[in-house]
Design goal:
Number of domains: 2
Largest sheet: 2 strands, antiparallel
CATH superfamily of the largest domain: Large-conductance mechanosensitive channel, MscL, domain 1
CATH topology of the largest domain: Non-ribosomal Peptide Synthetase Peptidyl Carrier Protein, Chain A
Number of strands: 4
Order of helices and strands: HHEHEHEE
Low-confidence stretches: none
Strand content: 5-15%
Distance between the termini: 67 Å
Mean pLDDT: 84
Number of helices: 4
Helix content: 40-55%
CATH architecture of the largest domain: Orthogonal Bundle
CATH class of the largest domain: Mainly Alpha
Structural class: mainly alpha
């Protein structure tokens, strides 16, 4: 069983997948930081100094006013954090666009097989010799072709 596990673990596909997951997690953190620290502050400023991560609805105490979801949670209230959800959607869209660009570039680099050339000859039904596709009569047996 250990030998089979070793063969499985060192198989090229498993190692490639592990590297991809690790790189993907690191890329996700970079994109998360980009959205939270670079992209959202200017958008929030354009919308009147708004911090999307502070958009929430206090479900357990709708009349209470807390500045942040963390303050509401420390007071014991249940919150619906739709601002964090908006940030997560923006993260996803950026990651999806980056993956799209990566796949698009890889598809450009990979060589596509040339399409098969259209046939220029056919076989005569009478003598089975190869003749041009446009032929009306076989040059070998002189039979009429349809």
């Amino acid at each position: 069983m250990l030998r089979e596990f070793k063969e499985f673990a060192v198989r090229g596909n498993v190692l490639d997948m592990a590297v991809g997951i690790i790189i993907g997690a690191a890329f996700g953190k970079i994109v998360g930081s980009f959205v939270e620290d670079v992209l959202m502050p200017p958008i929030g400023r354009l919308l009147g100094h708004v911090d999307f991560s502070n958009f929430f609805i206090d479900i357990s105490n709708p009349g209470a006013s807390f500045a942040t979801p963390a303050a509401a949670k420390t007071a014991g209230d249940v919150t619906l954090n739709y601002g964090v959800f908006l940030n997560t959607i923006i993260n996803f869209l950026i990651v999806a666009f980056a993956v799209f660009l990566l796949v698009r570039q890889v598809n450009r680099w990979t060589s596509k097989p040339a399409p098969a050339a259209a046939p220029t000859t056919k076989d005569c039904p009478q003598c089975a010799m190869s003749i041009p596709i446009q032929a009306k009569r076989c040059g070998h047996c002189t039979s009429q072709l349809a």
